[in-house]
Design brief:
The structure holds three protein chains of three kinds. Chain A is built from 13 helices and 14 strands. Chain A is of the alpha/beta class. In chain A, β8 (about 220-225), α8 (about 230-240) and β9 (about 250) form a beta-alpha-beta unit. By secondary structure, chain C is an all-alpha fold. The N and C termini of chain C lie far apart (about 40 Å). The complex binds adenosine-5'-triphosphate and magnesium ion.
């Protein structure tokens, strides 16, 4: 027991000394909460990697307010309780003036009250549940889209252009999945389509044979799939294995086509429609050069990983925060919050500026996977 | 002890202190078994008889003291190696493998035999000794009657071709007829195989009748030892154990 | 309707057989050694990753890789048992639980470091196009998984029932002291049981990993299901684990198909609660059977 206490004391002092001796009294800390372990770790890592690129660039240009910025990353595991812990650590231990996170809608919604209590702004980079900005909180800003915006944008295309007349949903059983089902169902119904079936799955579920069997006998002509990369790919793989390729399949919320092809295979992903935000192959007009520069840098630093929207949002998120700190002229939570309102960044993911609900409007599009390669079908905005 | 006796000694236990956790059960126990001898161990409930047997077979280990077998110290040798070298214990309460058949129980008794070609011979010997076991070969051991179980336990012990058998309370819970059958069998084994036996018994008559030498264990101390015939005449023993 | 039921039952049997394979090892280790092995999920995960490494990086034949991956995990299991569990023999169940939980966290993070969080898929030597058998759809990888699983289960069953080693295992399980007195090297039986259990978990990991995807935390769900199965079948009950696995698989399939897929995982827990309320020693009664 004594030995144990000894070890704990040593570890603690190392952590404390480590923080102090990194000498970063000068650096401005930015907190980040991402899933670094668990089923969503792949995506969370991407956000952090994109953020690191932005950190490097900004510091190479001399930082902000004459100081370097330093990212402090905590693992929220895409889990509400873990993410709240992470937020409290960042706020209390590291005293960060602003946080980016917390990847999942459920985790983000759980972190929001903590931010409010500590009067520190949160920049939401990937969580799409409407509840994050509706009702709006003065402490929460969002650069990614939300399901209500997506639903509105898709309305013009889903039934009329893409022919999703009898749609079935397969969605993660969390705030994110339920929000997508709500707003995309409206988009289907408003144009005369019907939703024949909605199948929710637990996060981390791997076996979709039961749901797909149900869909195959439901008369659905299309499946709308909402989940994380590996789960969505798994579903695509299994639709193919169960012979459901005649049914149109659409994956929502910017899951990268490359990942789907890699994980589900070329055959299984043939014809799959993908709803994108930032994508490498179709940058918004005028962004081509900047986009290429970002991708080259990313690939140089992380050679084994395709660039995805999570990296782009992570990159943009840190740039928005840095810009806000410059406008605020101080690394002060309240001032940063005020500055965010006025911040405008011409980002990779869109022209970022916040509306009266602190919501930005990123680019989005729909593409189709053909022979393992994504082809742009339509730009939504 | 005299020199010639020492040479014949099969098992020597010296100054054993042992117990469970903080509770000491055995206090400086010493005991010897000569080759070809039947030794009796008497003592009331909780005296520490089973504890002593478990230490000899290696199931428990002593705090201090030593055990020598065939001239070698085996105090820290594993149970299965002791079994391999010829020590077998017929445990108190039989401890058969209830979910295995009678035959499987017996065959497991010869698990330690290096020369597996001997197994059929040993099996025949046991079946010859207890024909009922031969009839009940396929029955699950857990469903045998008490007497049959004790036969099966003894048979299983014999399957390892032992040099020393430690018998713990053979007669426990059995009708006199059954006890008689099993004692007869034990005597037959003793006659036909060259082995030694340590008999632990609450039935003092039986114990002293079977053995040539006996020890009396009281709350972990050896309080008396000597030829069984003499102990049978000992007034104190007659009074406290035989109720005469 | 009828074909849907049939398809759901078959889906359930595929999953259930791998649940059974994972649970058999877990239940054996518990029954024999009184060790609740929280590392079991990581053995499952390592099975998948070893097979991935062998096929994708070293380009070994798939079937060879399956065998080698299982053997490699058995080696890992053996070392873990000898180094970490053997010194704790006779200690309370809580102590070993702490150790296996610690080991599980360690191995999972090691896998995360080594292979990264990116999910991987094991390259298969055959195409996974659907096979239509009447109204039922299946793929080769699923047929293969079920066949190998049942093959392994039958093999282990024969080993336990017929071989001398198996009888020594059962003897140790039923009366440890008497087994010692019969000359069984119980330590070796423990090491063997743990190693075998690890190998079975690895087998399930390889096979399910071939159907789905592999990633460092894949063991978490697997062990959860395995615990449910062990409770369903009765702690330490071999046949119980097999039936429990199949029952869980089929109930999940039917439940997801005809009640709600959102509550698929809850079905297992409801089963467990019912079992604990009405048949605490498992569906198959007697706790002491091996
Ligand atoms: N595993 C154990 N843990 C703790 N105490 C024990 C254990 N086994 C036996 N004892 C205690 O040791 C003492 C001696 O027990 P032991 O079984 O050796 O007696 P015994 O002479 O064989 O008695 P009996 O004739 O009733 O079988 C008893 O007080 C008993 O309670
Ligand atoms: Mg006793």
């Amino acid at each position: 027991m004594k030995g144990m206490i000894g070890i704990v004391v040593i570890v603690f002092s190392l952590v404390v000394l480590g923080c102090g001796s990194a000498g970063a009294q000068e650096a401005i800390k930015i907190g980040i909460i991402e899933p670094l372990t668990g089923p969503a770790a792949y995506d969370g890592q991407s956000v952090v990697e994109g953020a690191r690129l932005a950190e490097e660039e900004i510091n190479a240009r001399g930082g902000v307010l004459g100081k370097q910025i330093r990212l402090v990353v905590e693992d929220g595991k895409a889990d509400p309780a873990e993410s709240v812990n992470a937020a409290e650590k960042l706020l209390v231990r590291d005293q960060v003036p602003v946080i980016m996170g917390a990847w999942a809608s459920s985790a983000t919604l759980a972190v929001m009250p903590v931010m409010k209590k500590n009067a520190t702004p949160l920049l939401v980079e990937t969580a799409t549940s409407l509840k994050v900005t509706d009702p709006p909180s003065e402490w929460v800003y969002r650069i990614c889209s939300n399901s209500a915006i997506d639903g509105q944008l898709m309305e013009k295309y889903l039934v009329p252009t893409l022919g999703f007349k009898k749609a079935a949903f397969m969605a993660a059983n969390n705030d994110f999945g339920r929000a997508v089902v709500t707003f995309w169902s409206e988009a289907v119904k408003k144009k005369g389509g019907t939703v024949v079936l909605t199948e929710y799955h637990a996060p981390g579920e791997i076996n979709f044979a039961p749901s797909l069997t149900k869909i195959s006998t439901s008369g659905a002509d299309s499946i709308i799939i909402t989940s994380d990369i590996q789960t969505a790919s798994n579903i695509i793989k299994q639709t193919y294995e169960m012979g459901l390729t005649k049914i149109k399949r659409l994956v929502t919320n910017g899951i990268p086509s490359e990942a789907i092809v890699k994980l589900a295979g070329v055959e299984a992903s043939e014809g799959v429609l993908v709803h994108n935000y930032w994508v490498p192959f179709a940058p918004p007009k005028g962004q081509e050069a900047k986009n290429k520069q970002f991708m080259d840098k990313y690939t140089a630093k992380y050679p084994n990983k395709p660039v995805d929207k999570y990296a782009a949002f992570g990159y943009d998120g840190i740039r928005v925060i840095a810009q806000a700190i410059v406008t605020a002229r101080a690394a002060d939570p309240v001032k940063i919050k005020e500055a965010l309102k006025k911040t405008k960044v011409d980002g990779l993911t869109g022209n970022i500026q916040f509306d009266d609900k602190n919501q930005a409007r990123p680019y989005s599009s729909v593409s189709r996977i053909e022979k393992g390669k994504p082809k742009l079908v339509v730009r939504l905005n | 002890m005299t020199e010639p006796r020492e040479k014949l000694e099969l098992l020597t236990v010296r100054d054993l202190d042992a117990g469970y956790g903080d509770a000491q059960i055995l206090w400086g126990v010493s005991l010897g078994i000569a080759q070809g001898e039947i030794v009796g161990l008497l003592g009331g409930n909780g005296a520490g008889k089973t504890t002593l047997l478990n230490i000899i077979s290696g199931l428990n280990s002593p705090k201090t003291g030593s055990i020598h077998y065939l001239g070698e110290e085996i105090t820290h040798v594993n149970t299965y190696n002791r079994v391999r070298s010829g020590i077998t214990q017929i445990p108190e309460g039989r401890q058969l493998f209830p979910g295995l058949t009678v035959r499987q129980n017996l065959l497991l008794g010869s698990f330690s035999l290096a020369d597996k070609s001997r197994v059929p011979e040993e099996l025949d010997f046991v079946f010859d000794l207890f024909p009922i076991l031969s009839e009940r070969q396929k029955q699950l051991a857990g469903t045998l009657s008490g007497g049959e179980q004790q036969m099966c336990a003894l048979g299983r012990g014999l399957m390892s071709n032992p040099k020393l058998i430690l018998v713990d309370e053979l007669s426990l819970g059995l009708a006199p007829v059954a006890v008689e059958r099993i004692v007869e069998a034990l005597k037959k084994v003793y006659r036909e195989k060259s082995l030694s036996i340590l008999v632990v018994e609450q039935d003092v008559h039986l114990c002293l009748e079977l053995s040539t030498t006996a020890y009396v264990l009281e709350t972990g101390h050896i309080v008396k030892q000597g030829p069984s015939e003499e102990l049978a005449k000992d007034p104190q023993i007659r009074k406290s154990y035989l109720g005469i | 309707m009828l074909t849907e039921v049939l398809q759901q039952v078959i889906n359930g049997l595929v999953m259930g057989s791998t649940y059974a394979l994972t649970a058999v090892g877990l239940t054996m280790i518990f029954g024999m050694m009184r060790v609740v092995n929280f590392t079991h999920g990581e053995f499952y995960m390592l099975g998948g990753f070893f097979a991935f490494q062998l096929t994708a990086s070293l380009h070994l034949n798939y079937y060879v890789s399956v065998v080698v991956a299982i053997l490699a995990v058995m080696a890992v299991g053996f070392v873990c048992e000898r180094v970490l569990l053997a010194p704790l023999r006779g200690k309370s169940i809580d102590t070993t639980v702490l150790v296996t939980i610690g080991l599980s966290i360690f191995l999972q993070n090691l896998a995360l470091l080594w292979w990264g969080p990116t999910p991987k898929s094991i390259p298969l030597p055959f195409s996974n196009t659907p096979l239509q058998w009447g109204p039922v759809v299946l793929t080769w990888s699923r047929i293969l998984a079920v066949s190998i699983t049942f093959g392994l289960i039958v093999l282990v069953h024969l080993l336990i029932q017929k071989s001398l080693l198996g009888k020594a295992m059962r003897a140790t399980f039923q009366e440890k002291d008497a087994a010692l007195l019969a000359g069984v090297d119980v330590e070796r039986i423990y090491a063997f049981t743990f190693t075998l259990g690890a190998g079975l978990a690895a087998g399930a990991g390889v096979l399910l990993g071939s159907i789905f995807l592999i990633y460092p935390s894949m063991g978490n769900i697997a062990i959860l299901k395995a615990f449910i199965v062990v409770i369903l079948g009765g702690m330490g009950n071999f046949i119980g684990a097999i039936c429990g696995g199949l029952i869980l698989g089929v109930t999940e399939g039917l439940g997801a198909g005809f009640v709600s897929s959102g509550y698929k995982d809850a079905i297992g827990f409801v089963l467990v609660i019912l079992i604990l309320m009405f048949r605490p020693s498992g569906l198959f009664g007697k706790a002491r059977r091996l």
